[in-house]
Design goal:
Elements lengths: L1 H22 L4 E10 L6 E18 L3 E10 L4 E10 L8 E18 L3 E9 L1
Antiparallel strand pairs: 1-6, 2-5, 2-6, 3-4, 3-5
InterPro entries: UPF0412_YaaI
Protein name: DUF2541 domain-containing protein
Keywords: Signal
Length: about 130
Amino acid sequence: MKTNTLIATLLVGASLLGAAGAAQADDKITLGRTIVFESHSKDAVIPLMVCRRVDAIRVKADRDMRLERVVATFRNGETKTIRFHRNLDKNEYTDWRKFAYTRCVKKLEVFGKSKGSSAGVRIYGRQ
């Protein structure tokens, strides 16, 4: 009797672990946040303390702004420029922009201008 209970408990636990892994397969993580100013056309740099493995990025504007591009620097030193050239309203997201494969991101640079004095920008990654 105890053996059957033990086996049933192990099976239920194993199935829950498998379901949790499947649910996390398409999770988004926050890669970083920065502020874009109205008068500056310089980039806003988001250095990442640890390398984050993602296959796509998405940008959210906390206020109205014009997003020009995001430059991602990877662990091996390569860069990828993702051009947006669009206006983002408050709390608006861009679409997911994919990399060719899962990459390890070390630094992000955001180029754009705020329509007010400043606008917060959040960059999300998809694992």
